[in-house]
Amino acid sequence: MFVNSNGYNLGVREDEVVVNDVDLPPWAKKPEDFVRINRMALESEFVSCQLHQWIDLIFGYKQRGPEAVRALNVFHYLTYEGSVNLDSITDPVLREIPETYFIRDSHTFLLTKDFIKAMEAQIQNFGQTPSQLLIEPHPPRSSAMHLCFLPQSPLMFKDQMQQDVIMVLKFPSNSPVTHVAANTLPHLTIPAVVTVTCSRLFAVNRWHNTVGLRGAPGYSLDQAHHLPIEMDPLIANNSGVNKRQITDLVDQSIQINAHCFVVTADNRYILICGFWDKSFRVYSTETGKLTQIVFGHWDVVTCLARSESYIGGDCYIVSGSRDATLLLWYWSGRHHIIGDNPNSSDYPAPRAVLTGHDHEVVCVSVCAELGLVISGAKEGPCLVHTITGDLLRALEGPENCLFPRLISVSSEGHCIIYYERGRFSNFSINGKLLAQMEINDSTRAILLSSDGQNLVTGGDNGVVEVWQACDFKQLYIYPGCDAGIRAMDLSHDQRTLITGMASGSIVAFNIDFNRWHYEHQNRY
């Protein structure tokens, strides 16, 4: 809305300056900065703490009466709901009185045609006050600013409170952990961190919600002595490895990586690709048994991605293939299958076919909230499709950014793409390149915080780094690990980062994005 991207002729001002893009204040270098900083201000703790007072003025007890007078919140009487109903003035004589309205006494007057027109003009030009919804003060919103001053409150970061590394969990198998899925919500039947190794041995490692706030849902004092992740007993005891090993043959040319797996939001099923028969498959995490085989591609399926889940566990699944296409599928949380109909689960139909790539698809991300799929092929630009299959645009990277390998998209509409040889780009959803950087690490995993403000990266150097997503400003470097990072995910509360390592272990890090938040740094 601030950019005349279509080059319309908007005229010339009196000082002969051509009207074009909106002039921004000095603190915003570009329109994206203006939007981002305004969003940060409106979502800030300062605004959160004052929000109830605004509600009192506009919708609440300070809208009318003595409280409105005290708050200097009084407007022209015609703007208030119920003060006049133009449709109710049906008397034709009343509308036709030609003379100006006159006052009979200090309190009454006759409505005239001119006066009705004046009322209409008043309402059209100045609007009307909304309905009064509340007659008592609105309670303040719970905010971090309030909570951080409570005794022993761990919500806002205290440097002396937490170590960077919480725990290291070493699996008996030395196979690299190539996929990590932290579905840790307390209401799940089994809150867990599901891991999958390069040899396709998976583990359902129980999550103990020990890092939550006291009094928060899912927090229990009897678990406080536990470490947050408990190793899957079938793996720890070596007693039920047959229930955890995927033995079906994959195509020998497939390189097993994080893109080969998707775990459903309830931790009950794993979807795996790379099979020689051009399918991807669904397995139960409880029994390890195959529950569905899904065909649709003309060549080996090379990558999978899952959208955020709706209520009930429904979500989108996207599969990418060597046939240079992507297929969009629907996962039914009710029936635990791809497709809506359990009677036709043998041959489910994709919701959309996404075309446009010239080479094997290697990475993909899908956002149900935005209704978009962003994908990257072995070489060439990344493509943005709608979930109905329409190709919207290509994201042309800078020079030397030709081989995309990782994609992460925020619900705010920002797309982070990692290219080979340490190159990163940040695009707006309209295809504008917002920032770029180059680092000295072969990155294997990236993820964005839930608000899209922070980027976390990890790679062969074994170092987790945190960046500001909008401009790639480095915020923090965690102590280095003794092996490369292959995968990572965040717990539901955004307080724990779990990384899968090339040495066959997982590492849990304390992470608190508040710590790098501009308000926390300036105020706390």
From TrEMBL:
One of its GO terms (biological process) is intracellular protein localization. Pfam families: Beach (PF02138), NBCH_WD40 (PF20426). It comes from the Eukaryota. Residues 1-141 form the BEACH domain. Keywords: WD repeat. One of its GO terms (molecular function) is protein kinase binding. GO terms for cellular component: cytosol; membrane. PANTHER family: BEIGE/BEACH-RELATED (PTHR13743), NEUROBEACHIN (PTHR13743:SF62). This is Neurobeachin. It comes from Papio anubis (Olive baboon). The gene is NBEA.
